[in-house]
Amino acid sequence: MNSSINIASVLENVQQYFSPKIIAEVNDVYVKVAKIKGEDIPWHNHKNEDELFYILDGTLLMEIENEEPFIMKKGDMYVVKQGVEHRVSSIKECQIMLIENKTTAHTGEVITEITKTINQQQ
């Protein structure tokens, strides 16, 4: 069965910040959307996986270990390489798309009150 996904409609139903929602599977990766607001994501890394961030709306502060933080805007994309410490935040609501291996843990090995399991992301 083929069906398209309207990302804006999916995001309307996302109520919690920092809570990715899986919207599709492509081979061994998940396509996810999330809303970001505030600074709740801890510094973390993904030991064996890269993580792609694509900004759908708003602005996102990307912080990467040993680098100057930078602002991502609507239409920007960035890949955090495996093992690189990073965190994201946004003053106002930012909507993002993530592309991650199915094995990627939400906040790496760092577990906090915002950490979501794969089951919680479906």
Unreliable sequence segments = none
Q: Please, what is the CATH homologous superfamily?
A: Jelly Rolls
| Span between termini | 19 Å
Mean pLDDT over the full residue set? 90
Number of strands: 7
Secondary-structure element string: HEEEEEEE
Rg, rounded, reads: 14 Å
Outline, from the CA principal axes? globular
Discrete helix count: 1
Write the layout of secondary structure elements.
Elements: H1 7-12, E1 21-26, E2 29-38, E3 51-57, E4 59-64, E5 70-73, E6 77-80, E7 86-101
Antiparallel strand pairs: 1-2, 2-7, 3-6, 3-7, 4-5, 4-7
Characterise this structure.
The chain has one helix at 7-12, and strands at residues 21-26, 29-38, 51-57, 59-64, 70-73, 77-80, 86-101. It has one domain (7-121): Jelly Rolls (Sandwich). Strands 1, 2, 3, 4, 5, 6 and 7 form a seven-stranded antiparallel beta sheet that branches. The mean pLDDT is 90. It is mainly beta. β1 (21-26) and β2 (29-38) form a beta hairpin. 5% of the residues lie in helices and 43% in strands. The two termini are 19 Å apart.
Short description:
This protein has 122 residues and is mainly beta. Helix content is 5%, strand content 43%.
Features:
seven-stranded antiparallel sheet; mainly beta; 122 residues
